[in-house]
Amino acid sequence: MPNSFGKLFTITTWGESHGAAVGVVIDGCPAGLAITADEIQVELDRRRPGQSDIVTPRKEEDRVEILAGVFEGKTMGTPISLLVRNADQRPGAYDEMREKFRPSHADFTYQAKYGLRDHRGGGRSSARETIGRVAAGAIAAKILRLANGVETRAFVTQVHDISAPLEALAKFPTLAEVEATAVRCPHPATAAAMIERIKAVRSEGDSVGGVIECRVRGLPAGLGEPVFDRLEADLAKAMLSLPATKGFEIGSGFSGTRLKGSEHNDAFETRDGRVRTVTNRSGGVQGGISNGEELVFRVAFKPTATILQPQKTVDIRGAATELAARGRHDPCVLPRAVPIVEAMTSLVLLDHWMRQHAQNQTFKF
Amino acid sequence: MPNSFGKLFTITTWGESHGAAVGVVIDGCPAGLAITADEIQVELDRRRPGQSDIVTPRKEEDRVEILAGVFEGKTMGTPISLLVRNADQRPGAYDEMREKFRPSHADFTYQAKYGLRDHRGGGRSSARETIGRVAAGAIAAKILRLANGVETRAFVTQVHDISAPLEALAKFPTLAEVEATAVRCPHPATAAAMIERIKAVRSEGDSVGGVIECRVRGLPAGLGEPVFDRLEADLAKAMLSLPATKGFEIGSGFSGTRLKGSEHNDAFETRDGRVRTVTNRSGGVQGGISNGEELVFRVAFKPTATILQPQKTVDIRGAATELAARGRHDPCVLPRAVPIVEAMTSLVLLDHWMRQHAQNQTFKF
Amino acid sequence: MPNSFGKLFTITTWGESHGAAVGVVIDGCPAGLAITADEIQVELDRRRPGQSDIVTPRKEEDRVEILAGVFEGKTMGTPISLLVRNADQRPGAYDEMREKFRPSHADFTYQAKYGLRDHRGGGRSSARETIGRVAAGAIAAKILRLANGVETRAFVTQVHDISAPLEALAKFPTLAEVEATAVRCPHPATAAAMIERIKAVRSEGDSVGGVIECRVRGLPAGLGEPVFDRLEADLAKAMLSLPATKGFEIGSGFSGTRLKGSEHNDAFETRDGRVRTVTNRSGGVQGGISNGEELVFRVAFKPTATILQPQKTVDIRGAATELAARGRHDPCVLPRAVPIVEAMTSLVLLDHWMRQHAQNQTFKF
Amino acid sequence: MPNSFGKLFTITTWGESHGAAVGVVIDGCPAGLAITADEIQVELDRRRPGQSDIVTPRKEEDRVEILAGVFEGKTMGTPISLLVRNADQRPGAYDEMREKFRPSHADFTYQAKYGLRDHRGGGRSSARETIGRVAAGAIAAKILRLANGVETRAFVTQVHDISAPLEALAKFPTLAEVEATAVRCPHPATAAAMIERIKAVRSEGDSVGGVIECRVRGLPAGLGEPVFDRLEADLAKAMLSLPATKGFEIGSGFSGTRLKGSEHNDAFETRDGRVRTVTNRSGGVQGGISNGEELVFRVAFKPTATILQPQKTVDIRGAATELAARGRHDPCVLPRAVPIVEAMTSLVLLDHWMRQHAQNQTFKF
Predict the structure, then answer these.
(1) What pTM does this model have?
(2) Which residues contact C340 (CB under 8 A, 6 or more apart)?
(3) Contact A158, A53 (CB under 8 A)
(4) D348 class by beta-carbon count within 10 Å (0-12 exposed, 13-18 middle, 19+ buried)
(5) For chain D, how many structural domains are there in total?
(6) Contact, D302 vs D96, CB < 8 A?
(7) Residue C14: which of A28, A68, A118 has the nearest Cβ?
């Protein structure tokens, strides 16, 4: 089921960018949770087009409808079906793509795999697919919050070659700090520079990428299933399943490879009455299982493939040609990707929470 | 099934480090493949202890037995059961770990999750678990080779702060080049420096990490299942499911985040009669689907957690204490991790190969 | 994923009886299949209310909409999302059920499991859930027909104590013969008696059950996956997952238990140039794998639980009370269940077809 | 994973009849359960050959070894690997089957599916495969017993045309009553007649089938996952995945199709302080979910396919020939199938128990 994610809290997304609608079916949501379309909408509004002057100006409201699974305001344990109608479509803008492959897009690979494709706006490979993920993630996040006060916070730490200073990221940012700027970097000076850079590349018809960091606090020790379903393995899969991602690292990540063991190991101590680590180079996970420290990981996003400059490519017959995108695109996907990273994180964590309870907390021998 | 991996070519590993044996059951292997224990042994010998003077000197032969699924030299389509007996165990060496948590190991998290654990050598969290992966990967690799000449090559590109020069990695290394040195870096001068460094840190009772790169050639366009089972997502999960890994990146990875779209995009051209990309910053995958270019990704390994220097920690009652490992450990896991990375890659690719055929090549409308 | 069925051709159904809509997401449908809403509608019309004078007179058109997965008339390999709006709802008719458990319905068990329920028309336990199955089954059936001329035919062989004579079922009935009568029994004299009986029990406010037989021809030898995913095991699960079913038997079934081995075994012979069995007590399956003979199985349906006579029950507080259904119900579910049995059969067979190709026909060693 | 069963408590069986060994890997077993090889052996002894004078006289001890997953007498939450060596093999006895297909066995279908097969004793299609199921079932049964006092009891109710009288089955039989006779029918007079019949057909070189009933008490209301993973659907799949089974029915089953709704419905009442049904035609399940009443179902087994009389068949080239089995076979599989039916029942129930806890008892909103 390539369009499904999660073992116990399972989502199945569907829909093409320029079809009638996109949506998600959530299977396995616990019964009795109070949830409204408005609560879900809050997260969708964080990812929708047109929310600021550094994202695509497309005018899509992305209003979510709950079609099933909720009765008199509460989940019933039955599948939750959510739908968002597509709007503000200008399919004519894509006529050229019927014949030509956009560089570093999925046009060629979809054609190679399936023998045909919906060329309008990338069809299924469009980031509109992530609407269902964000909607489902909003529900998962609420459950985690109610169950244990789990709090997930993603934010932009790098855009192009502009990075937030390490000391600025020393503490867990508040939601307000993240939402304070359009670029969702909680360090105001860095955010200002990032915004300026995004506007500059946009004016050149170009694009930039960057890095999102995600942290989770309130997670108990014990989540994650060795050996293949390690918590970091499932997070890595979740993140690399997002459009435009090229890398994932947890804790010390790639830079930790330059330390010695004696510098890298996290010593244990007893603090606040429980076993804690003095440092957190592990990023909250050891042996694939959460250790009760803050979960910390980072995701690399490439520069947006759609640029307004003319590019060399081939058409579906293989003949050399040229292509220039027009119109309304994100010069940098990171600001809108922040709620998507959070959503995928919540989906992974809730699924593992339920698995941990099923196997290890249900039976007391 | 946390101990299983793969949807159509599925492996299930079992076994603790100091139990009677470790093993793997392979479900879904095509029938009719000629395979012998000796062919599997070749790969196990590349990961076994004691193979060189920079890895652990433990004396385990790791001889594989085929218990089921092969008849008169051929696979039958039934589950293949492989077993390797554990040997050269000195469980007494672990008595101290019954009471103390080793820093940056899985001792504490297993205890937190399950309420008990096998303290001898890490039990299930030991890298001995990967024996089953390597054995199964040897079979998957043979099928891929027979089916399309697919060739997978992993090698060490960085140890501590020593990296192979980029130009040294311009071409696909031969197996002989990789196997020429104990550290499995195909650039001889770099390999010599790496070996020297590993010996130096070992003499200090310390350890180092590094980076393994993996490349695959011969892969057709069309492998990978959007949207969640993208090829890079499944590779990321496979790699982060390995002990000691902290990061994964494909193609341009984290460094690609510093390019502009106009610099990063891979232009298409027709070459050798088929659609090719001029550059390969995508790393062989676009939209989650292979594009027929070389697959290129990298994996970050932290320094070995086991070091011979005394470290601060707590015991199972939370009291502060100190711990120093003794004996026989890998000062750097990367040389032995090379065949493991290759094995996981083959497992992911064969699984996607079978999925691609089931859905998209079985029916011609 | 309790609301999903199938490993490679996977359906996920959603929706409550009196919610906004019911629907299905199909994941894994091969690309390139020409399909229209009208083709799907044909099968939905065979299961919809109001189609004859022996089924419920509810007026629901059950018009299917294709929301995703089909572009310019062809499937794209992406998820197909189908939706049917609910209509002609009289939720007020169910006010009494908010407080009372209907005997032999799922009211009590849903309440026990989830702690709450949608009391209107059974909510998720309603047979309206099968709309998605029938819609998906129509697509699966078309693929099987195109791939190998596979033909699936279900029909009613018993209603209450009226059974079609064995000799009447000697041959594979045509679709026209099945559709000739409202009860979908291909033996006209028996059909007439069944219809009379159904009308008689309806006039008493009572209900009846019966047996549906299903046969499949055109199936090659080799479908079915030992040991757990035997073809008959997956068919049994599919049938017992339908509302109101109480039994499943394949080939000789329960009556075959009264034969000796020498009477029951199906001798092999070569006929029409291929290996065939002389008899077919196996029902087309041996060792869990199709043998190329006609697939033959039967499904037992209990009498409709909803009857218009007053029945003793308890309310949600456990107090004794009485309940009498009103209104518009099927006095016998079998006529409308015929296309549902066919749909589930097609879903099982296509899934196994794809699995057989992935594992055993993709690689030729 | 066709050789795996269960979603949270998952077993994977492996091994051919005349290979080195058969075994099972159990993934998802809760940690902390005290279990010994001897406890598992008790159930294996109930299914092993040579246990009485009405089963095959083969001399296999079927001693189970625990290779992994248990440490110092307790499960660790890691995979449990169990192995039974094959013994008393007379592979020469099967030379003829290399060339000839045994009627109503899986020889032809395995050959058709895989293109080759292990002809010795049926290879993977042999009932020896069920050893792993019984071993795993013993563990599952212990957990269910400890968790809620759940008790599962299967027994033979029919052999050939000899059935136990209904009144004899009115109460839940004790284990001692079932084990009192070699045929495992708790009604002594019927058991004597069954044993006589089995000996009579054996002396003719023939075989017989029959029916096993299985009951479970102590099960709470709420187990079972609508809509596809209904409890009866998963039980039906489990039973039809056993060799030689041809039918499954729950509660009133096929005979219930001859009742009217007013006769068939189970009225609710409050009894012993909880909601109960007056009758139990539902067999303990309504809407796919357990209702707290006794679970009651029946399984049809065909007569053993192996008979000592000569039978017409074809060889692997399709030429007509004749075949007569020699030697040591069960003239009736039912006595040895009783612990197998119980094992599969425990596996289904424990899996659903864990699923119910994960989704519906973990979170209290």
Answers:
(1) 0.98
(2) C47, C130, C133, C134, C137, C242
(3) no
(4) buried
(5) 1
(6) no
(7) A68
pLDDT > 90 fraction of chain A, expressed in percent and rounded: 88
CB contact under 8 A, A209 and B112: no
Give yes or no for a cis peptide into B227 (omega within 30° of 0). yes
Tokens 């030689």: give the residue. Answer: D244
**For the residues D166-180, what does the mean pLDDT come to?**
93
How confident is the model at residue D96, as a pLDDT? 87
Q: Where do the H-state alpha helices sit in chain A?
A: 37-47, 107-114, 130-148, 175-179, 188-203, 231-240, 261-264, 334-356
DSSP state of D27: E
Mean pLDDT of D213-230: 97
Structure tokens at D212: 């096993």
Residues facing B277 on adjacent strands: B268
Assess whether pLDDT exceeds 70 at residue D89: no
Pick among B9, B26, B70, B71 to test the D interface (most D CBs inside 10 A):
B71
Q: What is the CATH number of the domain that holds B267?
A: 3.60.150.10
Per-residue 3-state assignment (H helix, E strand, C coil) for chain D: CCCEECCCCEEEEECCCCCCEEEEEEECCCCCCECCHHHHHHHHHHHCCCCCCCCCCCCCCCCEEEEECEECCEECCCCEEEEEECCCCCHHHHHHHHCECCCCCCHHHHHHHHCCCCCHHHHHHCHHHHHHHHHHHHHHHHHHHHHHCCEEEEEEEEECCEECCHHHHCCCCCHHHHHCCCCCCCCHHHHHHHHHHHHHHHHCCCCECEEEEEEEECCCCCCCECCCECHHHHHHHHHHCCCCEEEEEECCCCHHHHCEHHHHCCCEEEECCEEEECCCCCCCEECCEECCCCEEEEEEECCCCCCCCCEEEEECCCCEEEECCCCCCCCCCHHHHHHHHHHHHHHHHHHHHHHHHHHHHCCCC
- Tokens for D235, please give them: 């039980």
CA distance D124 to B30: 15
- Which chains does B contact via 3+ CB–CB distances below 8 A? A, C, D
Burial of A335 (0-12, 13-18, 19+ CB in 10 A): buried
- CA-to-CA distance for A346 and C336, rounded, in angstroms? 42
pLDDT, greater one: B212 or A56? B212
**pLDDT band at A89, cuts 50/70/90?**
low
pLDDT at C89: 67
DSSP string spanning B256-271?
GGGSBHHHH---EEEE
Of C232, C216, B28, B6, whose CA–CA distance to D114 is shortest? B28
Average pLDDT of chain C is: 95
The answer, for D318 touching chain C at a CB cutoff of 8 Å, is yes
Amino acid D37 reads A
Find where tokens 């199955």 sit.
C133
CB C12, CB C24: distance < 8 Å? yes
B window 247-306, beta carbon within 8 A of A: 247-254, 256-270, 274-275, 277-278, 281-283, 285-292, 300-306
Contacts of C318 (CB under 8 A, 6+ apart): D270, D274, D275
Residues of A in contact with D353 (CB under 8 A): 362
Beta bridge partners of A299: A212, A248
Measured in whole angstroms, the distance separating CA B11 from the mean position of its chain's CA atoms is: 14
Nearest to C234 by CA among B317, D233, B309, A193: D233
Beta bridge partners of A277: A268
Phi and psi, residue A345, nearest 5°: -65, -45
B267/A312 CB distance under 8 A:
yes
Indicate the pLDDT class of residue D181, thresholds 50, 70 and 90: very high
What is the extent of the structural domain holding A191?
4-361
**CA distances (Å), C281 to each of A81, B4, C219, D103, D205, in order?**
44, 38, 17, 11, 20
DSSP letter at A115 equals S
